[in-house]
UniProtKB/TrEMBL annotation:
InterPro entries: Cupin_2, RmlC-like_jellyroll, RmlC_Cupin_sf. The lineage of its organism: Bacteria, Pseudomonadati, Pseudomonadota, Alphaproteobacteria, Rhodobacterales. It comes from the Bacteria. It comes from Sulfitobacter geojensis. Residues 69-132 form the Cupin type-2 domain. This is Cupin domain-containing protein. Gene3D superfamilies: Jelly Rolls. Pfam families: Cupin_2. Transmembrane segments: none annotated.
């Protein structure tokens, strides 16, 4: 593969193209300044304005959310996995239909494998613009987002209506629902009763891992298996995630039988591949083609850590409890 061909599989942090109208809460005060990014795959955006950087199927989606301080993402649910790691800033994640069932604060490098079938939201509680990177299960990311009823009602009060076709219609721009399209129905009481409300101990103890703890585990010379059947978060969401550090970087060329993704969180990383090389910085995302020999090692002295994501044959469905 030539360097020119590979550059088309690298999305640089500075080249990310945001969408500010991706979801139903785009006009709701407190959520109207967020930016959504779809890096790999179709994502779950409800807006035709969403730019997709790499459309190739990987078995999972890669996205990101950027938000200024005090901006929040409204409470929603997914049918498949949603995993976040913090790239920049400090973030509060909260869950429950009204966001009052529990919360956890994540710092840079921390990772959160949010269980399926719970309402979740997140807020930038830092002092500067923050960025979190996301991995969503499945090529179609589970068919979209399920919103808490009050989110849909709040959005309607500010001019945005979600149709049952999964698309947004903005009355502020003179848009109305097309013939044959009805508003997305609110979840019924029976449907709401089927949504899980785990305790803070269950969520934080089972699905959150701290960056420094993972770095310590990766100092043994092998990557820290973060998410997987044998991971420190035991789950099979249709992909696996490892954390590599300087001590656990693989210096021998290797390949995978399916595409993989490299996402630095600390330091610069040099990726040598058959045909060329590239240097990645935090916030960059690189899709490595299947069956391509490559290595990834820190390019400079100092702290270095990188998340590696690869698909598996497991179904991208409800959280696995093995």
């Amino acid at each position: 593969m030539t360097p020119t061909e590979m550059e088309h599989r690298i999305v640089r942090y500075g080249d990310l193209r945001p969408c500010k109208t991706a979801f139903i809460d785009a006009h709701t005060p407190g959520s109207d300044q967020k930016e959504n990014f779809t890096i790999i795959g179709g994502g779950v955006s409800e807006s035709p304005d969403q730019h997709v950087h790499i459309a190739l199927a990987h078995g999972f989606n890669i996205g990101a959310a950027g938000q200024p301080p005090k901006c929040r993402n409204s409470l929603h649910n997914h049918r498949t996995a949603e995993v976040f790691f913090v790239l920049k800033g400090r973030w509060r994640f909260f869950w429950g239909e009204h966001g009052d069932a529990g919360e956890v604060i994540l710092e840079e490098g921390d990772i959160f494998n949010i269980p399926t079938n719970i309402f979740r939201g997140f807020e930038n509680v830092g002092t500067d613009y923050g960025m979190i990177m996301a991995v969503l299960g499945g090529d179609d990311a589970g068919g979209g987002v399920i919103w808490a009823p009050h989110v849909i009602e709040d959005a309607r009060a500010h001019g945005l209506v979600l149709g049952n076709d999964g698309k947004l219609y903005d009355s502020k721009q003179g848009q109305t629902l097309p013939d044959g399209v009805d508003p997305m129905p609110l979840l019924t009481a029976d449907e709401l009763a089927q949504v899980d409300t785990p305790s803070p101990m269950q969520v934080v103890g089972g699905y959150v891992r701290r960056y420094l703890d993972m770095v310590a585990l990766a100092q043994s010379g092998t990557p820290c298996k973060v998410i997987g059947a044998q991971g420190i978060i035991r789950d099979k969401p249709g992909f696996e995630i490892d954390l590599l550090t300087r001590a656990s970087a693989r210096t021998q060329p290797h390949r995978h039988d399916r595409p993989s993704v490299l996402m630095p969180v600390k330091g610069h990383w040099r990726v040598d591949y058959e045909g060329g090389s590239a240097t990645l910085a935090p916030g960059d995302t690189m899709s490595v083609p299947e069956n391509l020999d490559h290595t990834a090692v820190p390019a400079m002295t100092g702290e270095a850590a990188l998340y590696h994501i690869i698909g598996t044959d497991d179904a991208a469905g409800p959280t696995w409890k093995g």
